[in-house]
């Protein structure tokens, strides 16, 4: 399975903008999740309703789909999130957030991704902004 496979699962019926599968920084092995970006929220909603829980083509797996952003209530102002890779083992959410906030005051938050079993960083994270500039 790769980005092309996931792209193909959706692009026949929906307009896909981007596919990003998350891989282990060292081994390159897939981590079992990723992100699919569609051209509109309405399209993403239709995909979520149509595919979630359905069998994936040609593999013994089901689609497990969720919204990428947390929270039950969304306001009308969009968020802009970037992926940050190659993080040192001692980088925390706060350090990542404040490192970007010095240069970009619209930073809303940051999250360093950790292994749920070991609680060690996986070496990447995300920074959320309120402004695209």
UniProtKB/TrEMBL annotation:
Presence of the UniProt keyword Transport in the record:
no
InterPro entries on file: Nucleotide-bd_a/b_plait_sf, RBD_domain_sf, RBM42_RBP45_47-like, RRM_dom
Alphabetically list the UniProt keywords. Answer: RNA-binding
State the Gene Ontology terms under molecular function: mRNA binding
Question: Listed GO cellular component terms?
Answer: cytosol
Protein name according to UniProt:
RRM domain-containing protein
Q: Which PANTHER family match?
A: RNA-BINDING PROTEIN L, TRNA SELENOCYSTEINE 1-ASSOCIATED PROTEIN 1-RELATED-RELATED
- Tagged with keyword RNA-binding: yes
RRM domain sequence ranges? 1-70, 80-133
């Amino acid at each position: 399975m790769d980005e092309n496979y996931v792209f193909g699962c959706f692009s026949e019926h929906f307009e896909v903008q981007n596919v990003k599968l998350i891989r282990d920084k060292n081994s390159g092995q897939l981590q079992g999740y990723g992100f699919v970006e569609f051209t509109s929220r309405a399209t993403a909603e239709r995909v979520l309703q149509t595919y979630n829980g359905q069998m994936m083509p040609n593999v013994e797996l089901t689609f497990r789909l969720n919204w990428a952003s947390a929270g039950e209530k969304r306001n009308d102002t969009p968020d802009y999130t970037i992926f940050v890779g190659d993080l040192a083992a001692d980088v925390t959410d706060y350090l990542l957030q404040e490192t970007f906030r010095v240069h970009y005051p619209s930073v809303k938050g940051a999250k360093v991704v950790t292994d749920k079993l070991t609680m060690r960083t996986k070496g990447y994270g995300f920074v959320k902004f309120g402004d695209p500039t």
